Amino acid sequence: MSNLAPLRLCLLLVAVAAAGARADAPPLRDPMQPFKAAAGTGGTSVTGGPRFRLTAVLISPTRRVAILNGAPRQEGDRVDGATLTRIDAQSVRLEQGGASWTIHLGQSGEGPRTEGAPSQ
Predict the structure, then answer these.
(1) How many Å apart are CA 71 and CA 93, to the nearest integer?
(2) More confident residue, 96 or 38
C-alpha cells in the first residue's frame, strides 16, 4: 500500500496543474446560439443597438422559426411591440400600428417605435 502514496501524490499534482490551466481559458460558447450583434451596426434604438436583428431562419415542412432579437420566434409572435407576420427563407415581415417592414437575414432594422405610429 505504501507504493501507491507517490502515485496518488503525482495524480493530485497533475489534477491541480490542469485545473489552474483551465482557469485562464475563455468560457465555452454554445454553438447553437446566434452571435451577438456588434454595437454601431445598422439602425439604433434607445439602448444603442438595433431594435430588430434577424440572425437565422429555420424552415421545415411543419413550421417556420426566425431567430429575431436573439430568441426563436414564430409567425404571430410579438417582438418589441411589433407582430411577426411572415417568415421567409431570407427575411421576416413585421407590422406595427398599420405600418409593415421587412428585416433581411443578417441585418437590422427599426420600424415604428410606438403602437399606432403612422405608416411608413
Answers:
(1) 16
(2) 96
C-alpha cell at 9: 501524490
Q: Write down the H helix ranges in the chain.
A: 4-23
CA distances from 45 to 31, 38, 98, 120 (A): 27, 13, 20, 17
Rounded to the nearest angstrom, the gap between the alpha carbon of residue 48 and the centroid of all alpha carbons in its chain is 17
Closest listed residue to residue 63, CA positions, set 78, 76, 53: 76
Question: How far apart, in whole angstroms, are the C-alpha atoms of residue 23 and residue 27?
Answer: 9
Q: How far apart are CA 99 and CA 7, in angstroms?
A: 72
Q: In this model, does residue 43 exceed pLDDT 70? A: no
